[in-house]
Amino acid sequence: MINGDDLKAMRTQAGITQAQMASKLSCDRKTIINYELGVGEPKMGQLFKWLVICRVDVKPVINQIASIRDKLNGE
User: pTM of the prediction?
Assistant: First the structure.
């Protein structure tokens, strides 16, 4: 799983400050600090936004989810 250290590493590697991330996720900087300290976790939508903002390729995950959904729907 992705933990607070991972979130911080992705953010800093992308050259984004905590304040900038908070602005992009429409939350307080304190929320970003808490996520990175492991005090609470971002909701799924925020996590995916975080990944996209940090330029992490989420396409493989999305494709795998679509494949699973299609199998369940008999497609």
Answer: 0.85
Q: Can you tell me the distance from the alpha carbon of 12 to that of 59, in angstroms, rounded to the nearest whole number?
A: 22
Amino acid at 4: G
Through-space distance between the first and last CA atoms of the chain, rounded to whole angstroms = 30
Which residue is associated with the tokens 């996590």? Answer: 47
What pLDDT digit, counting tens, does each position of 39-55 carry?
Answer: 999 999 999 999 999 99
Task: Tokens for 10, please give them.
Answer: 């992705």
Cα angle value 56/2/10 (rounded, 5°): 40
What is d(CA 56, CA 41) in angstroms, rounded to the nearest whole number? 18
For the chain, the structural domain boundaries read 4-72
Tokens standing for residue 27: 């939350």
CATH architecture, range 4-72: Orthogonal Bundle (1.10)
